[in-house]
Amino acid sequence: MSVDNEVDEPGWEVDPDDEWGLAVLATVGRQLKLRREAVGMRAADFAVAVGYGEDLVYKIEGGKRIPRPEYLDKSEELLDASGLISAMKEDVEKVRYPKKVRDLTTLEAKAVELLSYGNHNVHGLLQTEEFMQALLMTQRPALPEDQLDRAVAGRMARKKIFERSPAPELSFILEEVTLRRPVGGTAVLRRQLEHLVEIAQLRNVAIQVMPMDRWDHPGMGGRIQVLKFGDGTAAGRMDDGYGGRPVSDAKQLRILELRYGIIRAEAMTARESLSFIEQLLGET
């Protein structure tokens, strides 16, 4: 398979509704074209030099295609761009992720505290790559391969929150059923449980399990999430309120925190939950 065929594949187009992403690609494409013309290279010659098809070069320069990191690296070297092209790689990488996921990643990246209750699936930040891929493959209509890859890449990017310093305080409440459902098969579930045991032992992470026999709590309507920021502001959302949209009004946030506090009180403690997950791991 040629390099050109590997690059010119589905999944490297920007979302037409993503205005910021379109603007980034237009800027990157324009700079690449200007630098190429400045050194006197025709598109056909440049394509040969970087090992890509001429048509793909035109698409990238026209802002119609997301360039791969290696394309930008080769362009930086060939065009002697003095770091200009390399400096654009971070924004180009963000465009690769769907807009909805990118916005969530931005909020999570700023949070100093995260509270999250989920009643149907293991939280995306806690999922292993193979678990999240198996989960996404259950969607119907089935996601095209390129969209599946983008969705997985977006979720994996969010995991950078665990690498931040200072570390944010992270609280997760998972329903017991989400730890028993063999998403992707027994082997995938086992590795997911092993991952939860590992994450649960981080000092800034609290994972609590809600036993299946406890139903009298305000989480029966779906997910609840609250993100708190260093400047004292916060944002949150819940599936059965405010149309599922993020909210930042103090009165609405008090309701979210009230619900989360009751749910947290009904769940097992973090220590009990870790023992319970280890028990499930031994049974899987």
Oligomerization category of the chains in this entry: single chain
Over the alpha carbons, how many angstroms does the gyration radius reach?
22 Å
Distance between the termini: 41 Å
- Count of helical regions: 13
Structural class designation: alpha/beta
Detail the poorly predicted runs: 1-8
User: Main beta sheet, described?
Assistant: 5 strands, mixed
Query: Taking all residues together, what is the mean pLDDT?
Result: 89
For the largest sheet, list the strands in their spatial order.
3-2-1-4-5
Count of strand segments: 5
How much strand content do the residues show? 5-15%
Secondary-structure element pattern, one letter each: HHHHHHHEHHEHHEEEHH
Q: What's the overall geometry?
A: elongated
Percentage of residues assigned to helices? 40-55%
What can you see in these coordinates?
- There is one protein chain.
- This protein has 284 residues and is an alpha/beta fold.
- The chain contains 13 helices and five strands.
- A five-stranded mixed beta sheet has the order 3-2-1-4-5, sandwiched between helices.
- Helix 2 (19-38) packs across helix 6 (89-95) and helix 7 (99-110) packs parallel to helix 9.
- The protein is elongated.
- The model is unreliable at 1-8 (pLDDT under 50).
